[in-house]
């Protein structure tokens, strides 16, 4: 398993509005969850904190912009990266952020096998706290109707990466995923404030507790299984016992398999 999930690299070409802020740093490129953009970790500058830089072009620039806006809102509810610099042109976006302390949940599960049940308990507690934020306080919609419209646009534009589908859907087309989702509708919503991409690489842990989250561009009001399904799927790499523990720690005795299946299919299209 690749615990670090990043590789050293030279600095990319940068606009002048950011170049001065990142002088003197070593660069590493993140290989996880780039979704068509790039993510770099900037580190090793004496007396300076680590930083992250996200870059997107075209529609991905809109995703980077969405994340910048959501970081500002989430800062009142959870520890998230602080925006240092944001630059936007009609076709490009750069988002420079502070790093959150700690290690990702994925790193913790790999490095400390004996602590895996405690890590899942910490993730469940944090997820319950996130889902308890009053929906009236959240200005962002991410329900399955909205996400379906985005997914259809991505299918029609031919930008769905079918080579990145989960193993059980190897060889599927995007249209087949769409048809499988339609067969699971209608779905009664259970709206909460969701992270939107609650994967093991997006949650930071320190001293046994979740200290914050990253990659929040999809944050918004949606069914709670938007988060539960993605986390449950990630935990499958470490065995079904941890998947079961997720639901028992969260407080669900009988997981809704229909909603699990729907949200995992939906996630394939992004």
Structural overview:
It catalyses: kanamycin A + ATP = kanamycin 3'-phosphate + ADP + H(+). Its EC number is 2.7.1.95. Helix content is 37%, strand content 20%. It has 270 residues and is an alpha+beta fold. The protein folds into two domains: 6-98, Phosphorylase Kinase, domain 1 (2-Layer Sandwich); 103-268, Aminoglycoside 3'-phosphotransferase, Chain: A, domain 2 (Alpha-Beta Complex), CATH 3.90.1200. A six-stranded antiparallel β-sheet has the order 1-2-3-4-6-5, with helices on one face. Strands 7-9-10 form a three-stranded antiparallel β-sheet. The mean pLDDT is 95.
Mean pLDDT: 95
- Contiguous helical run count: 9
Stated plainly, the CATH topology of the largest domain is called Aminoglycoside 3'-phosphotransferase, Chain: A, domain 2
Architecture per CATH nomenclature, i.e. the level-2 architecture of the largest domain: Alpha-Beta Complex
CATH superfamily of the largest domain: Aminoglycoside phosphotransferase (APH), C-terminal lobe
Count of all domains: 2
Q: What fraction of residues sit in β-strands? A: 15-25%
Q: Tell me, what's the shape?
A: globular
CATH class type of the largest domain? Alpha Beta
Helix content: 25-40%
**Contiguous uncertain segments of 5+ residues:** none
Radius of gyration: 18 Å
Strand order of the largest sheet: 1-2-3-4-6-5
Number of E-type strands = 11
Oligomerization state of this entry?
single chain
What about the largest sheet? Answer: 6 strands, antiparallel
What is the rounded distance between the termini? 24 Å
Helices and strands, in order, run as EHEEEHEEEHHHHEEEEHHH
């Amino acid at each position: 398993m690749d615990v670090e999930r990043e590789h050293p690299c030279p600095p990319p070409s940068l606009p002048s509005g950011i170049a001065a802020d990142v002088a003197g740093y070593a660069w590493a490129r993140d290989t996880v969850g780039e979704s068509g953009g790039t993510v770099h970790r900037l580190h090793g500058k004496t007396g300076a904190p680590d930083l992250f830089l996200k870059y997107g072009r075209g529609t991905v620039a809109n995703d980077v912009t969405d994340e910048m806006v959501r970081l500002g809102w989430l800062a009142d509810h959870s520890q998230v990266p602080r925006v240092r610099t944001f630059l936007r042109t009609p076709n490009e976006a750069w988002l420079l952020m502070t790093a959150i302390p700690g290690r990702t949940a994925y790193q913790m599960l790999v490095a400390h096998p004996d602590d895996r049940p405690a890590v899942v308990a910490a993730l469940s507690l944090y997820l319950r706290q996130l889902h308890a934020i009053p929906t009236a306080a959240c200005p962002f919609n991410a329900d399955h109707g909205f996400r379906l419209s985005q997914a259809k646009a991505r299918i029609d534009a031919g930008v769905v990466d079918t080579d990145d589908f989960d193993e059980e859907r190897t060889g599927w087309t995007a249209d087949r995923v769409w048809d499988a989702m339609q067969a699971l509708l209608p779905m009664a919503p259970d709206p909460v404030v969701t992270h939107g991409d609650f994967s093991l690489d997006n949650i930071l842990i320190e001293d046994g507790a979740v200290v914050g989250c990253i990659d929040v561009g999809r944050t918004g009001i949606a069914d709670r299984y938007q988060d539960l399904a993605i986390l449950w799927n990630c935990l499958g790499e470490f065995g079904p016992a941890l998947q079961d523990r997720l639901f028992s720690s969260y407080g669900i005795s009988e997981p809704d398999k229909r909603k699990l299946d729907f949200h995992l299919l939906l996630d394939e299209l992004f």
